[in-house]
Amino acid sequence: MISLLPRVLTPIRALIAGLALFALLTPAWSLAGTTGTLSGVAVDSATNAPISGAKVTVSGPSDVEIAVTDKSGHFTFASLPPDTYRVSMDAPGYAATALNGVEISADNVLVVTLSAGKAGS
After folding, report:
1. For the chain, does the N or the C end have fewer beta carbons within 10 angstroms?
2. Taking residues 73-89, what's their average pLDDT?
3. Which residues share a beta bridge with 87?
4. Mean residue pLDDT across the chain
5. Strand order, beta sheet including 55-59
């Protein structure tokens, strides 16, 4: 009886060797990401309580995105192109607030706090 095992192992070994060689020769810079992340929390300026359901908008020359805060006041914008952004927040019962000049860079996570007072106070 003729065994097929050696014929099957040879292509598998060649594939493994090729993948290992590719991994060793691939420059680290080619594996770097091209986007950054903005994360944060929206809070009441008087009580520091989280503001849930707030609309948070990130706007810049290359991108505009909108998120809504969760029950803990948290929001996240993943995969933002590196740029300078304006981060604004609107929530029922609160004065609108914004941060200008927010710098997002590749492979970084920036955490911000948006603090808003009650509307009319």
Report:
1. N
2. 96
3. 58, 99
4. 85
5. 64-68, 55-59, 83-90, 97-104
> What are phi and psi for residue 99, nearest 5 degrees?
-115, 125
- Measured distance CA(118)–CA(89) in Å, rounded: 13
Fold of the domain spanning 33-116: Immunoglobulin-like (2.60.40)
Digit-coded pLDDT (tens) for 17-66: 555 555 555 554 444 579 999 999 999 999 999 999 999 999 999 779 99
The domain segmentation of the chain, as residue ranges, is 33-116
End-to-end Cα, the chain, rounded Å: 90
Is-contact 45 113, C-beta < 8 A? no
Task: Say what the pLDDT of residue 63 is.
Answer: 79
List the beta bridge partners of residue 116. Answer: 44
